[in-house]
Amino acid sequence: MDNEMSSTLKCAKCEQEFNKKELTIINENPYCHQCTMEFANEFIKIKSEQLSKKTKKTAVIKNKNWKNVLICLFFICMGLNAILIPQMINSLKGNKVIRKGVIKTDKQTDNCIKNLWQISRMLQEGKLPPGNLVCPVSKKVYLVKEDGENIIVFCPTPSRHGQGKFKQIKVSRSSPIPEVIE
Ligand SMILES: [Zn+2]
Ligand SMILES: [Zn+2]
User: Fold this and answer.
1) Which of 34, 36, 101, 169 has the most CB atoms at less than 10 Å from its CB?
2) Ligand located closest to 170 CA
3) Which ligand is nearest to the CA of 155?
4) Phi/psi at 94 (nearest 5 deg)?
C-alpha cells in the first residue's frame, strides 16, 4: 500500500533519491550504498587508529607506514564484503537495528534481525549458524540454504513477524546486511 505510493526515498547524507530496496537503515535514517560505505570507512579509520595505537604500545614499528598498511587492509576487507560491517554494528550503542530496506519492523522482528547479524558475522568467518540460535517468535532454528559459493540464512517463520506481511527475513555471505522482504 504505502510502499506503492513512493518506492524511492532520499539518502539522509547525500540527499539523492534511491529505490527503497537499495537503502540501508542506520540509526533510523536511510543511507545509500555509497554513504553506507563512507560511514563504514569512517568507522574503520577510527578502528585502525585505535589498533595502531595498541600496536605502538606492544612493539616498535615504523609507525606511519604501519597505519597506512592497516587502513589499506581494512579497505580491501570492505571490498570483499567485509567482516567489518557486522563488527561496526556491534559497536553501535543502543537498540537501533540496521537492515536493508526501509520496511517498518516491530521489536520481535528487530530481535530476529539482531540474530541475523550474529549469523552474518559467522558466515563471514566461514561458520554456519549454531543450532541453539532460534527465531524469537517461533523458537525455531534458522534455515540454511547453500547456493553455490553463497550461503543464505532465513528466519524459519517470517510470516509470524510484522502481522503476516513479511515474506522473507534473511542474510547471506555475499550480502551481509540483513534484509526484510514484504
Ligand atoms: Zn547517500
Ligand atoms: Zn524470525
Assistant:
1) 169
2) 2
3) 2
4) 95, -175
d(CA 73, ligand 1 centre) in Å? 24
Q: Which three cell numbers stand for residue 8?
A: 524511492
Task: DSSP for 24-61, please give it.
Answer: EEETTEEE-HHHHHHHHHHHHHHHHHHHHHHHHHHS--
Q: Given pLDDT bands bounded at 50, 70 and 90, which one contains residue 115? A: very high
Provide the pLDDT confidence category of residue 1 given band limits of 50, 70 and 90.
very low
Q: pTM for the whole thing? A: 0.54
* pLDDT per position as a tens digit, 33-92: 888 878 777 776 666 666 666 655 555 545 556 666 666 555 555 554 445 555 555 554
Q: How many CB atoms lie within 10 A of CB 113?
A: 23
Q: Ligand 1 centroid to 16 CA: how many Å? A: 6
Residue 7 dihedral angles phi and psi, to the nearest 5°: -95, 0
Tell me how far the alpha carbon of residue 101 lies from the centroid of ligand 1, in angstroms: 14
What pLDDT does residue 168 have? 92
Distance between Cα 66 and ligand 2 center (Å): 43
